[in-house]
Amino acid sequence: MTLSKTHPRYQSLCIRERLTDGVRTGITSQTGLIAHGRGEAFDYLLGERTTDSAMRSEEAAVAMLLAASHPVLSVNGNVAALVPGEIIELGRVLNAAIEINLFYRTEERVRIIADHLRIYGAAGMLGEYPDAALHPLPPEHPRSRVCKGGIYGADVVLVPLEDGDRCQALVGMGKSVIAIDLNPLSRTAKAATITIVDNVVRAIPNMVELAIRMKDIDADRLDDIISRYDNEEMLRAAIEEIVTRGVGRV
Ligand code: PTJ
Questions:
Q1: What is the pLDDT of residue 250?
Q2: What is the distance in A from the centroid of ligand 1 to the CA of 68?
Q3: Pocket lining: 229 vs ligand 1, CB cutoff 6 Å
Q4: CA-closest candidate to residue 46, choices 168, 196, 156
């Protein structure tokens, strides 16, 4: 279908089309569409823009990833369909590893996603051959499978669109977890160390720009940005945005 650029929901429809293409090619799970629908509803309520509080979370997240000794960016089927080039660019600027980590893991989906990311320039990506488990989760469950040299050994993990159990498992293992989740009320949003209440299609490009600007900042200044960050305050600010935003939009 050809989408008209004049359609008021043009951007939103383009995003949907990228995800339905992702389902067709085996990158995104069918449940990924449902997860997106939930995110889209919150995005609508937030005004489909990066709020000031989201930008503050993005800045703190970049500071935390730059200050990390072993940062890892986790990629699932929605992220691979929506921001493949941008997540790889973020990994490059931050010098962070990229690991494919799926909720609905099948070996075939992992391979399709890995091939897709390689087309966008990914090299040395992890996740195809997991050799460790997130021990707070049942070890036999596919979503607990991670790489020793990646998420398992990471001190800071970026998890865009993560489920609550795995987010809590990562926090329980002593990691700092940065979530990107449009739902400020989700278990993930509450459990994460830093929650970015923004759409991944805006958050990741914003973080690339911030990382380029901040990468030469000294360690004390990064620590200062991180220590002043208060996740509960940012979640409250997001809820406030939803509640108080004007009703005058079309
Ligand atoms: O590709 P897989 O197999 O790893 O599966 C990925 C999904 C997303 C299906 C899986 O992790 C899942 O079921 O996630 P949940 O538990 O539904 O959580 C997804 C969260 O992401 C929800 O709180 C949504 O509001 C939020 N969300 C959805 N789309 C976006 C989003 N947040 C930011 N940007 C989006 N585009």
A1: 46
A2: 25
A3: no
A4: 196
What is the model's pLDDT at position 9? Answer: 81
Rounded to the nearest 10°, the torsion over CA 53, 233, 171, 31 is: -50
Using DSSP bridges, classify how beta strands 156-160 and 176-180 pair: parallel, antiparallel or unpaired: parallel
Is the CB–ligand 1 distance for residue 92 below 6 Å? no
Q: Whose CA is nearest to atom 7 of ligand 1?
A: 32
CB of residue 64 inside a 6 A radius of ligand 1: no
- Pick out the chain residues at pLDDT < 70: 1, 246-250
Determine if ligand 1 sits within 6 Å of the CB of residue 163: yes
Does residue 4 lie in a domain region? no
Beta strands in the chain (DSSP E): 71-75, 97-100, 132-133, 145-146, 156-160, 176-180, 194-196
- CATH code for the domain of 113: 3.40.50.12640
Question: In angstroms, rounded to a whole number, what is the distance separating the alpha carbons of residues 90 and 76?
Answer: 15
Number of structural domains the chain divides into: 1
- What is the tens place of the pLDDT at every residue in 99-149? 999 999 999 999 999 999 999 999 999 999 999 999 999 888 888 999 999
Does ligand 1 lie within 6 Å of residue 180's CB atom? yes
Tokens of residue 148, six digits:
């020793």
- pTM of the shown model: 0.95
Q: Is residue 17 part of a domain?
A: no
Q: According to DSSP H, which parts of 6-74 are helical?
A: 10-25, 30-46, 52-67
